Amino acid sequence: GSGGGGKGKRSWLPTLHVVRHGSKAVTRHWKPMHLERQKLMAVTEYIPPKPAIPERCLKPLVKKIEEETGYERLVRRQAVEAFRESRMITVCQYNSLSNDDMLMLRHQLRKHNIHVKFFPNEIIIPFLLESKYVNLLPLFVGRNIVLVSPETKAKEMLRMLKRVPQIVLLGACIENTILSKEGVVKFSKLPSLEVAQGEMVGTLSLVASQTSSLLCRSSLHLTALLDQYVKQQSNGTGETNVQAEMGPAESSQGV
Amino acid sequence: MAGFVPPNKAGVVLKQVKSILVQFCPFEANVEATRKFLECLYAKKAVASSVGCEVKTDVRHDGSEPVVDIVFADGDRLIMKGANLTTKEMLLAFNSRCAVKELKEQEKTQKNT
Q1: In 10 A of CB A93, how many CB atoms?
Q2: Nearest-CA distance from A168 to chain B in Å?
């Protein structure tokens, strides 16, 4: 026919536009573009401008500083308070414990005024870095609990913890002294303050009481002892003019 | 940080184990893997599967390396020095040996019956 035509014909009349295969321009399946159109699309594709050095290399990586939530601030405040008010701080590793056992342990410790506290590592580690407890830092790996107490009842605490093998005592800070587990055990075996003071007084007064008992005994004994002492001195130094004789010893009474 | 293993998913089965001794020095820097391994040993499933297995922990302060000493029910011993191991490696070594022993025991019981 005249004009119009199938595919491949260069000239076409707009009025007579016969399309082969009866397919329309807009189809529901994928229809490949006409070759000329494909070529045109390929030639006119958008090429974005590329800088010589990509931006990624120039800009320093900016880490987002997340703001502290109110909860974190609360927990940190609690940690600060707990550390400030307690004389004994014990760090233990917390392995899974049944709820009943944990409750029993908390109850037993509470009887001796020992509180079981749990702080998340992200909060406690920066806090420790800035405080004087820096040397406790290596203990805080994995799950830990902190036992704080205003008193220092180490013996009772050790007894409770012995019954619960899942809680492993790692270290403690008692009266501002950092102790290892052996240190805590030794501390628990120390006698109480009153007993220690009594022992000290006893030792100091031992010397004085020995002297007084010496003097209270017979003067002959005393003179013999002093003779011997003089001989020892003269052997050692070679010149002494100490009187070997002394009058009868005064009977000094009292301690 | 080479992969965090939650203790429940560690798949520790203590059936073939007679006793475990874990020694470490908590103030040292290389104990993380050993401590995590210890945590896995006390997981619920592990405790449920154990048949009178004792897990002892020895906390020292002498700068020694962390050691895990495991004695199996058939007398074998596994010693793991955890200073340069990760938790996953320790779990793999332990679990694989346990699985082998479990298989052997199953075969024995099948032969008997």
Answers
A1: 23
A2: 7
